[in-house]
C-alpha cells in the first residue's frame, strides 16, 4: 500500500529524518510512535505532499511517487494535528463542504453516524467540545472514502473518555477495510490499536514490529514499580517520578524493596513504554 525507503529530511543543516524505511500493509493500522520532535509530523506531511523530502523513495499503491498527485490525494484521507475549521458553520454544513472537494465519497449523514455526531448535526463548530471537534476532524479525513488515512496525533489533548471514543472510530475505519497511518506519542494508543509499530527517535527508526513482538523482542522481564525517593532511586530507572525495576527474580526484588521499607509497589508485565525506555533510556513524554 505504502512503502518508504531511506527517507531523509533536512531543515537547513538539521537532519530531522535520517533515512527511515518502512512498509504498510493494506488493511492494517501502522503506528509511528515517538516523543515530541522525533520526526513524526515531518514524515506524515512529506507523505501527504505538504512538505518536500530531501532524499529517499516513496511508493504509493505499488508505484514510485515523486510528488503526491491529485489521483493519490483522492485515495488518501488526512487528519492533521491542528485542523482549523470554519467556526460559524454547522457540523453538517462542514461535512457537505468537505465532501464537495472530492469526486467521490461518503454521504455526510453516514459520516455523522460513524463518528457519533448525529445529535450535533446542526450545532455550530464553535459550540463543539474538544472531543466532538476532534471526532468531526476525524470524520472529515474519511469523507472521500479513502483507502489510506493519515491520523497525526488524533487524540493529543483529549480526556481519557474522548480518547477511547476516537479509538473506537479508528477501529471502525479498520473494520471497513481501510489502512491507517497513525502517529502518536501515547504508547498505550499504539499498543491498543496498531498492528505494526515503528518507534522513531531523533529522526531514526530504532525498532519495529507488532506491539507484542516488540515487547517479546526486548527481552524485558517482569517490571516492579516503586515510588521514587532517596531509598529507592538506585534500584532501577527513574521515570515519571517512579523507579522502574526490571527483574527476573520477582521474589528477590520484592525482598530488597521491603528491606528498604517500601510497601507500596506494583508488579506488572512490560509495556511498549518499557521497551522505549530500554531502547532510548528516556520516557516517551520526557
Ligand atoms: N519547518 C521546520 N524548520 C526547522 N525545523 C523543523 C521544522 N519542522 C520541524 N522541525 C524540527 O524537526 C524535528 C522533527 O519535528 P516534527 O514536527 O516532525 O516532530 P514530531 O515527532 O512530529 O513532534 P511532535 O510530537 O511534537 O509533533 C524537530 O526537532 C523540529 O524542531
Automatic annotation (TrEMBL):
<dbReference type="GO" id="GO:0005524">
    <property type="term" value="F:ATP binding"/>
</dbReference>
<keyword id="KW-0472">Membrane</keyword>
<keyword id="KW-1003">Cell membrane</keyword>
<dbReference type="InterPro" id="IPR003593">
    <property type="entry name" value="AAA+_ATPase"/>
</dbReference>
<dbReference type="Pfam" id="PF00005">
    <property type="entry name" value="ABC_tran"/>
</dbReference>
<comment type="similarity">
    <text>Belongs to the ABC transporter superfamily.</text>
</comment>
<dbReference type="GO" id="GO:0016887">
    <property type="term" value="F:ATP hydrolysis activity"/>
</dbReference>
<dbReference type="InterPro" id="IPR027417">
    <property type="entry name" value="P-loop_NTPase"/>
</dbReference>
<feature type="domain" description="ABC transporter">
    <location>
        <begin position="2"/>
        <end position="227"/>
    </location>
</feature>
<keyword id="KW-0067">ATP-binding</keyword>
<keyword id="KW-0547">Nucleotide-binding</keyword>
<dbReference type="GO" id="GO:0005886">
    <property type="term" value="C:plasma membrane"/>
</dbReference>
<dbReference type="InterPro" id="IPR050763">
    <property type="entry name" value="ABC_transporter_ATP-binding"/>
</dbReference>
<protein>
    <submittedName>
        <fullName>ABC-2 type transport system ATP-binding protein</fullName>
    </submittedName>
</protein>
<keyword id="KW-1278">Translocase</keyword>
<keyword id="KW-0813">Transport</keyword>
<dbReference type="InterPro" id="IPR003439">
    <property type="entry name" value="ABC_transporter-like_ATP-bd"/>
</dbReference>
Amino acid at each position: 500500500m505504502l512503502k518508504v525507503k531511506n527517507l531523509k529530511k533536512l531543515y537547513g543543516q538539521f537532519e530531522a529524518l535520517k533515512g527511515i524505511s518502512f512498509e504498510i500493509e493494506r488493511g492494517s493500522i501502522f503506528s509511528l510512535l515517538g516523543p515530541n520532535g522525533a520526526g513524526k509530523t515531518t514524515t506524515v506531511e512529506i507523505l501527504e505532499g505538504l512538505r518536500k523530502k530531501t532524499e529517499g523513495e516513496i511508493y504509493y499503491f505499488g508505484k514510485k511517487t515523486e510528488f503526491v498527485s491529485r489521483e493519490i490525494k483522492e485515495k488518501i484521507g488526512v487528519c492533521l494535528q491542528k485542523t482549523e475549521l470554519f467556526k460559524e458553520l454547522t457540523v453538517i454544513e462542514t461535512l457537505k463542504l468537505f465532501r464537495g472537494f472530492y469526486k467521490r465519497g461518503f454521504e455526510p449523514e453516514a459520516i455523522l453516524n460513524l463518528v457519533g455526531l448525529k445529535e450535533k448535526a446542526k450545532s455550530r463548530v464553535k459550540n463543539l467540545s474538544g472531543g466532538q471537534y476532534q471526532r468531526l476532524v476525524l470524520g472529515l479525513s474519511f469523507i472521500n472514502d479513502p483507502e489510506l488515512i493519515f491520523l497525526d496525533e488524533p487524540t493529543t489533548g483529549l480526556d481519557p473518555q474522548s480518547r477511547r471514543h476516537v479509538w473506537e472510530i479508528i477501529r471502525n475505519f479498520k473494520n471497513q477495510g481501510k489502512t491507517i497511518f497513525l502517529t502518536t506519542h501515547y504508547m498505550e494508543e499504539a499498543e491498543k490499536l496498531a498492528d505494526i509499530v515503528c518507534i522513531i527517535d531523533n529522526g531514526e527508526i530504532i525498532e519495529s514490529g507488532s506491539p507484542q513482538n516488540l515487547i517479546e523482542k526486548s527481552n524485558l522481564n517482569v517490571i516492579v514499580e516503586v515510588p521514587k525517593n532517596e531509598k529507592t532511586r538506585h534500584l532501577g530507572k527513574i521515570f515519571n517520578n517512579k523507579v522502574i525495576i526490571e527483574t527476573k527474580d520477582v521474589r528477590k526484588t520484592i525482598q530488597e524493596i521491603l528491606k528498604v521499607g517500601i510497601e507500596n509497589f506494583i508488579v506488572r508485565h512490560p509495556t511498549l513504554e518499557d521497551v522505549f525506555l530500554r531502547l532510548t533510556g528516556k520516557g516517551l513524554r520526557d
